[in-house]
Batch of 2 targets.
Target 1
Amino acid sequence: MSTIFGIPTPALYGQILIGLINGSFYAMLSLGLAVIFGLLRVINFAHGAQYMLGAFAAYLLLTYLGIGYWLSLVLAPLIVGAVAIVIERFMLRRLYGLDPLYGLLLTFGLALILEGAFRHWFGAAGKPYAPPAQLTGALNLGFMFMPIYRGWVVVASLFVCIGTWLLIEKTRLGAYLRAATENATLVQSFGVNVPLLLTLTYGLGAALAALAGVLAAPIYQVSPLMGSNLIIIVFAVVVVGGMGSILGAIVTGYVLGVLEGLTKVFYPEASSIVIFVIMAIVLLVRPAGLFGREE
Amino acid sequence: MSNAPLLEVRGLNAWYGESHVLHGVDLDIHEGETVTLLGRNGAGKTTTLRAIMGILRRRQGVIRLRGKDLLSLPLHKVAQAGIGYVPEERGIFASLNVAENLVLPPNVSDGGMSMEEIYTLFPNLHERRSSQGTKLSGGEQQMLAIARILRTGARIILLDEPTEGLAPVIIQRIGDVLVELKKRGMTILLVEQNFRFAKKVADRFYLMEDGRMVNSFPGHELDARMDELHEVLGV
Amino acid sequence: MAVGTQYLAEQPKLRTTSLVLGAVALAGLLAAPFFLYPEFLMSILCFALFACAFNLLIGYVGLLSFGHAAFFGGAAYYTAHAVKVWGWEPLTGILFGAAGAAAMGLIIGFIAIRRQGIYFAMITLALSQMFAFICLQVPFTHGEDGIQGVPRGHLLGIVDLSQPLAMYYVTLAIFLFGVFAIWRIVNSPFGNILKAIRENERRAVSLGYRVDRYKLGAFVMSAALAGLAGGTKAIVFQFATLTDVQWQMSGEVILMTLLGGIGTMIGPMVGAGLVIALQNYLASSQFPVTVLIGIIFVICVLLFRRGIVGEILELMKRKPKGTI
């Protein structure tokens, strides 16, 4: 069996794949956080809970209505996006113009409510969610066997990230979003309904988290607390990347995921803290983050 | 009805937080007119524009466009009613290129300039259409700020100190643009410190002091009133 | 938000009233263990001190730390280890815990003060989560089990702390010492500079203050006092577990402070008392505590951001002047 640095290569590739998958979720979630923060100046602490809601929506749709994976991939983000729109309209909106810390605290409270309620109803244990029949099995790549579903997650998340990036960089709606991120009042004085834009942006960010949740359901199982630890890692990713750049958030997500996977191979004890260590180092060397602008 | 002003402001009061900054401002602008607000720094000229536009929200009084109340409208509806705003700081977006900046404001009515017309009027913008908006020179940014409003079909344009900090050649160009707009029947409310520039385009002047309108006179009286103006404006 | 103390200083009448109120409160605290369970009271005292320490940072420097559990729970581990494994005297053990928390505060603070506002909150959260992962893995914390069966021992070798009343009065003394220390810090020249930084950081910089050093100083003090509370808790309840280092605990101390009143002297104590009482009350019911904490968060942020004590102080301030 071939080895690299004394590590058998299949194990190495396997961990890199796991790192890529984790990185896919870091990228999708930090992308949503960055889009929301850019326009609303709110750090959406409920992002992890919305990711969990997406996974639960898929699970409940399947269990109670018999609706399968592919339809859930569309429905779950719509449902969670709608919930987020209600939250923005009735709660977040009241905090615009105040210290952004209040937005963080409000969404933290919402996350506690959502996670506590789901834990109360469904228990803390994870619930299995089977991948769709079309994506079961494994592919022989020659150097390793890759479960098809895992490959799909990496590809799908790339599509989601690139799609969102194109939406923001290449469309009229994206131009409104970028401009309003710089100067919302001026954009509104041009006749753009900025309050509606804010609502839709929060809905879009939450829908992205929910989509990630559906993608994650067959890999990590569906559990009420699946989002709460993840969101803290994603915060670290966001600090490393800096929230000024959409592309930066995406790239940082994948890179940190892979670095974490590699750590699992070479020094497993540190794998759960490696991202935080990287964050600390980046802060010491370049406080604004790798892609951030100094404020 | 032909005598009714296009934009009518009556007894406008406005506040920045606790401080009362406009005290009963009256202002009329008729269709096709160019009206210029004069006054020292801090007299309330920019504030008047921001209050009309609705960017400054704490206001009382009457603001009507063609008899339709604007005071109760949210900010974006004011623009949709047909008022275009070119702020003093120009407000060019750094994350948009020149072409994106140009098409950013949505159309508010038919009859705005086409892109061809705009590029004919501002050839520089065509040359630099894919540059980042804030990489343009100050003069080009000012042209861009005006041009993007012309595209939207706004019937009345609020222009805040378009010549500030620009070289004489550029000021000349902007003057030509305003004359061209007047020819096309555009209504303009201008805030300007530069008399010579204002004289070229203004049909009427309003003089502001301490958040109040203290005088108004037709454009041709400007020269005769120079001494009085120097006293009020302290120039 | 430091309105509370400044206002009191300017109003001699209120100052007398607050002295009287303070005396009444002290008498109440001395008598309390004869009416309520000492364990319950000690729990409140530990968390009240923790919340006051946290408030030193957000209320007087304007920095929201989302990672204070690391100092509270970290100190609990250090104290528990020193007392149980090394056989240290309990007060020395508590001080050791506080010193350990201060050292952690120096490291975490040094990294976190490089960013402000929302980033500061995220960084402290991430670093404390890192610490929680470390606690899960290193052997001395005993992972999921935590350090159990910590002996209360004899204070200075004399007072037997296994007696509930003795433990209570020692806890009360530590609490009062901690609150007095915070009061001294806030009302010192150092505290005034902190407030100046909170009001206008740029101005403080232009006046020549090394703003980062002051922030770091405040961060370390806040961490040390949080550690004092955590170490005491480890002796009182005789264990130290992962619960106290996790992010939920950081959230709870934020809630206590927010509910009571950020930037007021007694707000965090009131908030801690209410939250602990609620948790105690709910422990016997079906209703999930997390949900309730979340609901209180949402209500506080949306409806009364000054907190209970802050709102009362605001009312008192307004009444004589009438509304603006």
Target 2
Amino acid sequence: MSKRYPLVFWTGFAVVMALLIVAPLVLPEFWRRFVTEILIWGLLAMSSDILIGYTGMVSFGHSAFFGLGMYGAAAALLTVKPPNLWLAIAYGLVGAAGVALFVAYFSTRLRDIYFAITTLIFSQIFYVIIFTWTEVTGGENGLTFSRPRLTIPGLYSEPFDSTTLHWFVLAVVTASYLVLRRITRSPFGMVLQSIRENEPRTRAIGYAVERYKIVAVMLSGLFAGLAGVLYAIQNRFAAPDFVYFLVSGETVIFNVMGGIGTLVGPIVGAGFFLLLRETFSRFFTEYYLIPVGIIFIAMVIFMPQGLLGFARRWLNR
Amino acid sequence: MSAADTPEPLVSVEDIHTYYGKSHILDGVSLRVGAGEVVGLLGRNGVGKSTTLKTIMGLVSPERGRIVFAGKSIEGLPAHQLARLGIGYVPEDRRIFRLLTVMENLRTGLDRHGVTEARKRELLDKVFAYFPVLAERRNQAGGTLSGGEQQMLAIARAMMLEPKIILLDEPTEGLMPRMVSQIRQIIDALHRDGVAILLVEQNVPLTLEASARVYIMEKGAVRHHAAASDLKVGDAVIQQYLGV
Amino acid sequence: MDAVVAFLEAIPYDQILIQTVNGIVTGMILALVASGLTLIFGIMDVVNFAHGELFMLGAYMGVIVLANTGSFWVALLLATITVALIGAALQVTTLRPLIGRDPLTTILATFGISLVLQNYALWAFGPVARKIQEPFTGHFTLFYLEYPWYRLFIAGLSAAIIGAFWLFLKYGKYGIWIRATTQDRVMAQAMGIPVPWVYTFVFAIGAGMAAASGVLFGPLVGVNHTMGLDWVLKAFIVVVVGGMGNLGGSIAASIFISLLEAYASIWVSPAQAVIVSFVVLVLTLLFRPTGLFVPTPK
């Protein structure tokens, strides 16, 4: 099994990649954007999986990282003319990193539920600040800006269209996935998982658990911020709604639905949730969360390993 | 030698297998306790004596096997039901409710459905007669009692359930010799009252004196079974399984 | 010296006194909500994300019963009982299967419940806020303000409810069961206490307390489907600051934070006054993470 596994994995990976690359060429506009959105939310969920699935730290604060990434990009796109893609990414990452540092500090002093609640309250703190600091953040209405051009210095400079944007997002998300995959399989990743399994023992063995946690939070925050940047670029606006803790909650839902600790799972979970939302919206309009919420609760009770965990068990039979 | 002389044992444990995660703690335990009998369960640390008691009490679910109590199959039933059916449990390290007073500790067992106020008073009087020191300290918080007093409270609390059998887990551990003999007297008194006792102990002489029959466990199963009168402290069997 | 006098004269004493009363009133309601939350956490180890929605449901129940019977008191009673039963039903169906599992799962389950309840309320009652009429009007004069008696009343009633519950815990027969279960769940079971039902009972009480707060608070604000969100956040802050599972602590913390916010609102807008509670939380986490009002662990 372990010899065949890499083969199976990379084949599957190649197939999925091929499908995603071809997607914008064959799908109608609406679904094109839909797939792109799944990728972006998937990236956010993946970043959160580093904490929840690998380090065992449940965080409801990802909306803060996401939001700061979004607003950071907005800042770059509004203040620097002409709007520069890479600058937006840089600003967004810096913004997210700042929040991550703040959260990381508390992550080392609080465990479990206290950490979860505190991260939730932090994302609300940022929400209130962004909501009320109207002069800088546009308050309730948020900020709108134009999309930067896709520039590869010296080589290429074209405005994005929805296809190239999709490919760009795909490239970023795939690269992030590969990087995170590499990290979670490295000795560092093993230590994180050991922290999740049994923190006191990990500490007793001699690992500086605090440092690992801080790095995990920073990593998670950066990729979440990256997702925020991508979202800003795709949609050309930044709004405080995305910093509200419900977004964090939805992220955790993606994680659980897909399967925590799998990296791919959260992306699947995001896709599943968004698909459910699309489908149920047809019948229930804006009340789609009632059936989707019930499905979610049922999954927590009966399918706690998520879709991926369930599939894995099913395939192993 | 068979315990099946008694018409129908009060408790019959039949080939119990219990796991903690992947650890196979109980590997086919079988034993019996007759009504009103005092039965000892000996063995070194870690062989599964406490787990056996916990399994009988319903605090741990066995993977396989049967437990019969007063004619009913009880494996898998929750502990609170078993307590009401008449199984009392006095765990290792006592575990009295430290923040509740002595009286409140007793009330947790006393406040049962279908017990008249008069009967409650009777039970309290009886228990205070057994343990006068508890009567003195009735309004004190459980955590303020000494080790020996806490052990008495733990036993008294179980008695409030009017149990048919009490599962006693190492009652003399950490107690001074004077207290140990007090525990011995209590076991005798309970026996006179017709309460069966399954006594897990490290104290071999006490167990041999107090019990009618003795089981010896090793590595998760019962390896030897004898009448207490047939065993003496220096016996080879005792040496083999207990290294005493 | 003049500067000191000028400073002392500039302090708006009347506003401070008014805000003190306001702070205590809001604080008592918050205490009632937070008590339910801290109880559920302290006894069952469940972080009840849906607590704000139970508050909201209570308020809506109040609206409906009031519309049908015209009596505020009947509305208060029925809303409390109904939501307590709903809470019990929720606990039995969604939380009992999760006992013994990773605590994360209960957070997720209650989060899911909160989403469902919120949207259900939106669907059933629409987005327009409803109003509950106070059972009695009437003011007394507090400086230049006409201060409603009703506000003082709800503070008093909240205190009474909490007090009654505390007495029940200390002296009632089931109160002993609850306390025993909190201290040692396993031995409570071994003593014949039906622990799963104790949990259901406690959850129901917590839900009922939240519902009562919803009805009591209803006349002060509009009743709408999002009213739970703000309260749950504040309640969580209170529970952490007061010490999780610590009933007295959460009451003290509720009043403390509400007072600070009330004073802050003299100078800043209410939306910004909320930051006060956040600051208190951060400071508590930095310096006294077990809770501001908890005696330092030895």
